């Protein structure tokens, strides 16, 4: 992990376009989160910035939240196979061992992805850092039984966790 070079104070001084660019990838293919959070600066520290970003996501209309959820790739999915993941997603999935799945694990994850997407209408999302493939597969199986609203909220909570981890790498405390 690299030492973060940005500070919340420096981010607070940026114009909106530079602020959004500096936070690119924190929320997968969804610059609108940073765009809408920008007017709420200055940010005292990384935690305040994260709180504002997550609060912005949580306060967004449901259609925007759903678009954010759907912007995430499937775990070990077609985009990963084709090399089309963002730099952040590629690193995170590889770190969880998803790039080294056995054929059986890959097929199981593919089947779980399909069942999950058919059930909820969006991809399964989990902050994979610190998890092993078996942990991820178990979570996929367990969460398939969640009620729709519970899983929608869980997807947003996982996105917030992913954003926190990504922000930790870029912004000093």
Indicate the structural class: mainly alpha
Number of strands: 0
**CATH architectural label of the domain at 73-159:** Orthogonal Bundle
The portion of residues forming beta strands comes to under 5%
What share of residues is helical?
55-70%
Contiguous low-pLDDT stretches (5 residues minimum) are none
In oligomeric terms, what are we looking at? single chain
The CATH homologous superfamily of the domain at 73-159 is called Oxo-4-hydroxy-4-carboxy-5-ureidoimidazoline decarboxylase
Pathway: Purine metabolism; urate degradation; (S)-allantoin from urate: step 3/3
Pfam family, one: OHCU_decarbox
Organism: Zoogloea dura
InterPro entries: OHCU_decarboxylase, OHCU_decarboxylase-1, OHCU_decarboxylase_sf
Q: In words, what does this structure look like?
A:
Helices cover 62% and strands 0% of the residues. With 173 residues, it is mainly α. The radius of gyration is 16 Å and the shape is globular. 31% of the residues are buried.
Keywords for this entry:
173 residues; mainly alpha
Topology, element by element:
Elements: H1 8-13, H2 16-22, H3 32-37, H4 46-59, H5 62-70, H6 78-81, H7 87-95, H8 103-120, H9 133-143, H10 148-170
Helix pairs in contact: 4-10, 8-9
Q: How is this structure best summarized?
A:
With 173 residues, this protein is mainly α.
